[in-house]
Amino acid sequence: MKAKIGFIIVLILGILIFSNLKLKFGNDVGITAEMYIEKGVSETGAVNLVSSILADYRVYDTLGETIILFIAILGVSMILKGDKK
Fold first, then answer.
1. How far apart are alpha carbons 29 and 36 in whole angstroms?
2. What is d(CA 64, CA 58) in angstroms, rounded to the nearest whole number?
3. Angstrom distance (rounded) from CA 36 to CA 30
4. What tens digit of pLDDT does each residue of 27-81 get?
5. Which residues are CB-neighbours of 37 under 8 A, at least 6 positions away?
6. What is d(CA 28, CA 76) in angstroms, rounded to the nearest whole number?
7. Cα dist. 72→16, 63, 69, 76 in Å?
8. Model-level pTM greater than 0.90?
9. Domain coordinates in residue numbering, the chain
10. Which of 18, 27, 53, 54 has its C-alpha lying 20 to 30 A from 46's C-alpha?
11. What secondary structure letter does DSSP report for 84?
């Protein structure tokens, strides 16, 4: 049984490694990234480009991710706290 689990883990890791080798890094940026780079600071007024993207363009997405993370942490803490009788 341990050999099967080990084989599955090695297989999954191998697939992940080989699939990431196909990714090309350092390519030209896409259309959306070009728009963020060219107009991000001037449209938002933020000095930091990353902050301008997160706080203006993707505010609802970031807020949703934060809420989901908070709910997950709250759920895990409630489960771990449990009923100590």
1. 10
2. 10
3. 10
4. 677 888 888 888 888 888 888 888 888 888 888 888 999 999 999 999 999 999 8
5. 29, 49
6. 41
7. 26, 14, 5, 6
8. no
9. 2-81
10. 27
11. -
